Amino acid sequence: MKNHNLLVGMFVTAAVALFGAGLFLIGNQHKAFSHHAIFYTNFQNVDGLTKGAKVRVDGMDAGEVESIQIPSGPAKKFRLEMNLDDRLHGLIREDSLVTVETEGIVGEKFLLITDGSEHASEAPARSTLESKEPFEMSKLLEQAQGIMKQTDTTITEVQDTMNDVRGHLDATLETATSAIKNVNGVVQDVRSGKGSVGTLLEDRATAADVRQSVANIRQTTEKLNGSSARIDRIMTEVQSR
């Protein structure tokens, strides 16, 4: 009987010891036996972040997301409560920034708090830290598609403009070619003696008569100028007398 009681006592003692050790390990893992500080932050989009997600300060595990308060309307933001190890409190400043990050490419989501600048004051417990909205690949793809559509439209407009310019150039070239052909025909007609100009250029007798007539007109003009000068002198003498 005594041996039975001894065995029972040893079993109970071992069970209590194991339970205490397990409780200590679990509490230590969740930092239950360390001092904590509460901080808040706000996000328009939590990007799949859930309660209990890790919170890191400069890459070091510092705590977890204690709760996520759902906003009452679309214009408001999610309010996140973060339970952090107080030993890292000195790294959290008033200009620290909270972002949503991902473990690897498709890993779990966690919050990352960047350390603030040295000149900034230490953020007090239960203060709200500034946040940066998570990067959304879907919006980037939508913007890329919009840019591609605009590029296609611009290319189409440029092609239409080039076609119009090409059409105008073709018409201008045709007009210029026709004009050059007409000029060439006139020159050939003149050289061959066709038309009045051609006759004057090719008929030497006619050309000589034209030159003589021009000379006679010049002489007559000179005589008239001389007579006009003599008349002016006579009128001057009459007026003086």
Condensed summary:
The protein is of the alpha/beta class and 241 residues long. The chain has helices spanning 2-29, 137-191, 195-202, 204-240; strands at 36-43, 54-57, 60-69, 78-85, 97-102, 109-113, 128-132.
Describe the structure in your own words.
The protein has helices spanning 2-29, 137-191, 195-202, 204-240, and strands at residues 36-43, 54-57, 60-69, 78-85, 97-102, 109-113, 128-132. By secondary structure, the protein is of the alpha/beta class. The protein folds into three domains: 1-33; 34-135; 203-240. A seven-stranded mixed beta barrel has the order 1-4-3-2-6-5-7.
Note the total helix count. 4
Shape: rod-shaped
Please state roughly what percent of the residues sit in beta strands, choosing from under 5%, 5-15%, 15-25%, 25-35%, 35-45% or over 45%: 15-25%
Helical content stands at 40-55%
Mean pLDDT: 76
Largest sheet, described in full? 7 strands, mixed, barrel
Please give the alpha-carbon distance between the first and last residues: 183 Å
**Whole-number tally of structural domains:** 3
Radius of gyration in whole Å, from Cα?
Answer: 53 Å
Give the number of DSSP strands. 7
Q: Which structural class fits the helix and strand makeup?
A: alpha/beta
Low-pLDDT stretches are none
- Placed side by side, the strands forming the largest sheet appear as 1-4-3-2-6-5-7
Secondary-structure map with pairings?
Layout: H1 2-29, E1 36-43, E2 54-57, E3 60-69, E4 78-85, E5 97-102, E6 109-113, E7 128-132, H2 137-191, H3 195-202, H4 204-240
Parallel strand pairs: 1-7, 2-6, 5-7
Antiparallel strand pairs: 1-4, 2-3, 3-4, 5-6
